[in-house]
Amino acid sequence: QVQLVESGGGLVQAGGSLRLSCAASGLTVSTYDMGWFRQAPGKEREFVASIRGGDGSTTYADSVKARSTVSRDNAKNTVYLQMNSLKPEDTAVYYCAAKFGGSIRVEPSGYLYWGQGTLVTVSS
To answer: Which among 58, 31, 35 has a CA at the least distance from the CA of 108?
Structure first.
């Protein structure tokens, strides 16, 4: 069965950095499109970053593009989201998601598999 497990969230100070991890089982992250989304209280789930299966091309939301890097370690079957210069508005539950065979990569509806999420809280 497919399982995506996020880790690396926590409480950080504004201006700090963290790296979120998504450990996958039941699928190969080098083959699937992998996405990161986040959801803050009272807001819709929003796209953060994605990395395509195969060629590994990346896409970022404008709000994080200058501060973030999505990557994968194929040997560990894990994807990462490195975020720097964190802001209080980055506070949210961050979700890892996976899809295969579809064209929608920047909306939640395009993804089939989801992790449980990891909470990132950025204090000012």
So the answer is: 35
* DSSP secondary structure, 48-82, as one string: EEEE-TTT--EEE-TTTTTTEEEEEETTTTEEEEE
pLDDT digits (tens, 9 = 90+) for 81-95: 999 999 999 999 999
Where does residue 77 fall: left (phi above 0), alpha (psi -120 to 50 degrees), or beta otherwise? left
Please, which pLDDT band fits residue 53 given cuts at 50, 70 and 90? very high
Task: Give 118's Cβ-side CA count (13 Å radius).
Answer: 19
b/e per residue, 17-46, with b = 16+ CB within 10 A? ebebbbbbeebebbebbbbbbbeeeeeebb
Residue 90 near residue 120 (C-beta atoms within 8 A): yes
